[in-house]
Amino acid sequence: MMPFRSFSTIMGTCGGTVLATLPVIGSDDLIRTGILALVGAVVSFSVSFSLKIVVKNVFSAKLKSFANLRKKKDKEVK
After folding, report:
1. DSSP letter string over the chain?
2. In angstroms, what CA-CA distances link 37 with 40, 46, 49, 76?
3. Range of the structural domain that residue 56 is part of
4. Residue 62 lies in a domain
5. Phi/psi zone of residue 70: left (φ > 0), alpha (ψ -120 to 50 degrees), beta?
6. What is the pLDDT of residues 48-71, one digit of tens each?
7. Taking the model in full, what pTM does it have?
8. Residue 33 placed within a domain
9. Which residues of 5-16 are buried (b: 16+ CB within 10 A; e: fewer)?
């Protein structure tokens, strides 16, 4: 048996859920949520930016040392 779904039923359910939860959520909760979201975004950006710099520096240093080893081996072979 297929369930009957209509747009008005779905919208009514969603609207009722939102309207039932709005009185429960206070403005202080919304402000706290906004501040925590801002702090989380700043921390996430900072960590990803820092890791990008660290990984870039580590891999470039390893690649340079690998290239120098290759050059030394090539000179020794000739």
Report:
1. -PPP--HHHHHHHHHHHHHHHTTTS-HHHHHHHHHHHHHHHHHHHHHHHHHHHHHHHHHHHHHHHHHHHHHHHHHHH-
2. 5, 14, 18, 58
3. 52-77
4. yes
5. alpha
6. 999 999 888 887 777 777 777 676
7. 0.53
8. no
9. eeeeeeeeeeee
pLDDT for the residue numbered 51: 93
In a domain, 67, yes or no: yes
Residue with tokens 């020794």: 76
Token output for 26: 């206070």
**Would you state the structure tokens that stand for residue 69, as one six-digit string?**
């080893």
**What is the domain count for the chain?**
1
Residue 73 included in any domain: yes
